[in-house]
Structure formats: structure tokens, C-alpha cells
Automatic annotation (TrEMBL):
<keyword id="KW-0456">Lyase</keyword>
<comment type="pathway">
    <text>Amino-acid biosynthesis; L-phenylalanine biosynthesis; phenylpyruvate from prephenate: step 1/1.</text>
</comment>
<dbReference type="Pfam" id="PF01842">
    <property type="entry name" value="ACT"/>
</dbReference>
<keyword id="KW-0057">Aromatic amino acid biosynthesis</keyword>
<dbReference type="GO" id="GO:0004664">
    <property type="term" value="F:prephenate dehydratase activity"/>
</dbReference>
<dbReference type="InterPro" id="IPR008242">
    <property type="entry name" value="Chor_mutase/pphenate_deHydtase"/>
</dbReference>
<keyword id="KW-0584">Phenylalanine biosynthesis</keyword>
<dbReference type="Pfam" id="PF00800">
    <property type="entry name" value="PDT"/>
</dbReference>
<feature type="domain" description="ACT">
    <location>
        <begin position="213"/>
        <end position="290"/>
    </location>
</feature>
<feature type="domain" description="Prephenate dehydratase">
    <location>
        <begin position="19"/>
        <end position="198"/>
    </location>
</feature>
<protein>
    <recommendedName>
        <fullName>Prephenate dehydratase</fullName>
        <ecNumber>4.2.1.51</ecNumber>
    </recommendedName>
</protein>
<keyword id="KW-0028">Amino-acid biosynthesis</keyword>
<dbReference type="InterPro" id="IPR002912">
    <property type="entry name" value="ACT_dom"/>
</dbReference>
<dbReference type="InterPro" id="IPR001086">
    <property type="entry name" value="Preph_deHydtase"/>
</dbReference>
<dbReference type="InterPro" id="IPR045865">
    <property type="entry name" value="ACT-like_dom_sf"/>
</dbReference>
């Protein structure tokens, strides 16, 4: 069932361009990220049960875009999202959004902290709260949930859990009591979300951009990863993220999820992608888009656009025939 940001049922939209998918139900951090998208305001928001359903909405035309979590400042990359982007063709990242993350422990009315034996929590949320839970509930068990809001909702749906890890605003959506506030192990935790679509257009460069891609190593040999990294270092490009994920067809075969500072229309980035394409048997361009933090990219001016343009013109001049007399 589709729903608007407030969670109320809604009629099917006149155009699928008006539909955005997010991990529901209403009240999740993913919904908080979608609220940051200007183009999504006033449009239809479709709450889904998992990341696979969100991306299927986009690929199969039920939504124009989907918001998914891609990285957390504590746990690193979200592997299920990285693997999905690596294996589902045609997806593009068109924007990124940051959401500060903290959690509360909630329960059914009448429950006390001393009553809690089992906690329902999304695996990523549980990982970010496990130190608090281990310290305050040393004998607790964990039941995984599909989302942070679903964990709280399950308390009223026959769940065996006594409590749930949920977002601070959960009390606006469910009749729960808060047993403890700020149970996240790191008060500075932030989750990075990306808006994914099938559009082929690329946002214009802003000077504060990021380029995401996935590349495989050509073979398993000493120095192979160094060869990959040199495609960026020799062009003065900083990598803000690089994580390995198994390709899955054999042991020792890995692909690398990469975020590079800059835009595909920057000469240094374009030249690096050309070098990477010559080197790697598989390169997936996931998109160039504005950074969520708006931080302008600083780089050595030896790699500014004009240097690459002049070099190409110089090379072309070497084979130009001299004008006839």
C-alpha cells in the first residue's frame, strides 16, 4: 500500500514521476532522509519493507526514485546496498543526504527495564547500540527487525520481544513507553543515504561533488589493488570511500565500491575513469552528484581542467601537418 509522509493511505498518483519509495513504515530514518529532497515534497511516498523492494520499484517503474541507506559513520558501508548497486544494472545515484542517528529503547506500557529479556532491533541499529545493551541488559537476546520502526510496531503484533530499539520520534507513531534515551554508543553517529533512480542524466558540477563507482580487479596478484588506486592518485583525486565486496563467483575475487572527490565532467575525474576502464574488466559508474555536506573539493592545481585540455591540444599539434606555402 502506498502512503504519504504522514503514513495515511493515498490514491494512486496520476504519474509515476510523483512516487518515491523508502524503507517504511513512516517514522524511519530513511523517511527523514527523503524529507530532505525538495523534488519529493508534495509527492506520493511509497513505504516498502526492504531495500530490494525499494530498488525493484525503481527498476520496474513503480517509483521515480528510492531512498536507501548506503553508509554509516560507525559501521561503514551497508553491504546489502553496495551489493545491490553492483548487481542491478541501470541504477544511478542522483543525490546524497545525511541523517544524525540516535536511538531510544521502548516497550509496551507497563514494562520496566528490569522486565526486558529480548530486544527487537534492526541489525544496523543493534550494532550501534550493543555496548549500551550489553552494559545495561547483559543477558538480553536479540530479534532482528526489518526497520527501526517495525521493531517498535512488532511489540503490538505478537512479538516475543520485551522491548525494541527505535528512533526518538517513535512515540508519535506508536503507543510505546520510553525506557531509556540516547542509547546509541556514539552520539555523533550519522547515516548517509542516497537517492537512486534510473535516469541517465547527471547533475551539473557544483565544485562540491562526489563520484561513485564499482570496479573489479583484473586478477588476484601482488600490486593489483595498487594499480587500481594509482588511477586516482596520479590524477590528484582523493577517495572518500573504498570498500571491498566479494564478487561471489570464486574465492579471492573482489569488487571495490569507491567514492571519489569530484565530478565526471571534471577533466581529472574523467581521465581517471578512462584509465580505470582500460585497467578493470568491469567498471560501473553509479553517478556524480553534489555532496551532502556542501564541502568544496580541494585539489592540486596541477590537475585543473585546463592542464588536461592543454595536454590534449599539445598532443594533437604534434601530428598536425604544417601549412603549405
Amino acid at each position: 500500500m502506498s502512503s504519504d509522509p504522514a503514513g495515511a493511505p493515498a490514491e494512486l498518483p496520476a504519474s509515476l514521476d510523483d512516487v518515491y519509495s523508502f524503507l517504511g513504515p513512516s517514522g524511519t530514518f530513511t523517511e527523514a532522509a527523503l524529507k530532505q529532497v525538495p523534488e519529493a515534497r508534495g509527492k506520493q511516498w511509497r513505504a516498502v519493507n526492504n531495500l530490494g523492494e525499494a530498488l525493484a520499484d525503481v527498476v520496474e517503474g513503480r517509483s521515480v526514485a528510492a531512498m536507501i541507506a548506503i553508509e554509516n559513520s560507525i559501521e561503514g558501508g551497508v553491504s546489502v546496498a553496495q551489493d545491490a548497486l553492483a548487481t542491478i544494472p541501470g541504477l544511478r545515484i542522483i543525490g546524497e543526504y545525511l541523517v544524525p542517528v540516535n536511538f531510544v529503547l521502548v516497550a509496551r506500557p507497563g514494562t520496566t527495564l528490569a522486565d526486558v529479556r529480548t530486544v527487537n532491533a534492526h541489525p544496523v541499529a543493534y550494532a550501534q547500540c550493543h555496548q549500551w545493551l550489553d552494559r545495561n541488559l547483559p543477558e538480553h537476546g536479540h530479534l532482528p527487525a526489518s526497520s527501526n520502526v517495525a521493531a517498535a510496531a512488532s511489540l503490538f503484533e505478537g512479538s516475543a520481544a520485551d522491548a525494541a530499539v527505535a528512533p526518538p520520534g517513535i512515540v508519535d507513531h506508536h503507543d510505546v513507553v520510553v525506557l531509556a534515551d540516547n542509547i546509541g554508543d556514539n552520539p555523533n553517529a550519522v547515516t548517509r543515504f542516497v537517492l537512486v533512480s534510473t535516469t541517465r542524466s547527471v547533475p551539473e558540477p557544483t565544485g562540491a561533488d562526489k563520484t561513485s563507482l564499482i570496479a573489479e580487479l583484473p586478477d588476484d596478484r601482488p600490486g593489483s589493488l595498487l594499480d587500481l588506486l594509482e588511477q586516482f592518485s596520479t590524477r590528484g583525486i582523493n577517495l572518500s570511500l573504498i570498500e571491498s565486496r566479494p564478487v561471489g563467483d570464486a574465492l579471492g575475487r573482489y569488487r571495490f565500491v569507491i567514492d571519489a572527490d569530484g565530478h565526471i565532467r571534471d577533466e581529472r575525474v574523467a581521465d581517471a575513469l578512462l584509465g580505470l576502464r582500460r585497467f578493470s574488466p568491469s567498471v560501473m559508474f553509479l553517478g556524480s552528484y553534489p555532496r551532502a555536506d556542501g564541502m568544496r573539493i580541494e585539489f592540486d592545481q596541477r590537475y585543473r581542467d585546463e592542464v588536461f585540455t592543454e595536454a590534449r591540444e599539445w598532443l594533437a599539434s604534434l601530428t598536425d601537418e604544417a601549412p603549405s606555402a
